[in-house]
Amino acid sequence: MTSDAVVDALVRSCFQVMGVLTRIGAENDLSLTQLRVLGILRDRRARVTDLALFLGVDKSSMSGLIDRAERRGLIGRDRNPGDRRATDVFLTPAGIELTGRLYADVRRALEPATRELDAEQQRTLVTLLDPILIGSAGPGPLSPA
User: Between the N and C ends of the chain, which has fewer C-beta atoms within 10 Å?
Assistant: First the structure.
């Protein structure tokens, strides 16, 4: 298999997943970037500056995204305990509930594709994707643990 075939397969799978995420986000009045923020915060607190860097948006755009989510009661802000000059964002109970529901919706939407793989193939896929996904996050506070 050529590297072009690998790239093509990755791109096609990304398009499929992005289509699902975009549709589910729109059904919940969320942009793809807002959906990404909720997904990132699902299991952590994060500094605003780290989120902006990871998402590739400037700090003012990030602040606007956070402001909108905060007005909806989905995200809260607090001083970073290790650096009082920095601000952390986190999911509120309403944000946790919505994120759980969104994850279930995504899981249901992708299930037709994932059920084509048996359990061993699913494990292999995760194993193969891990180095790619960790590499894209780069080292830092938003990298998977």
Answer: C
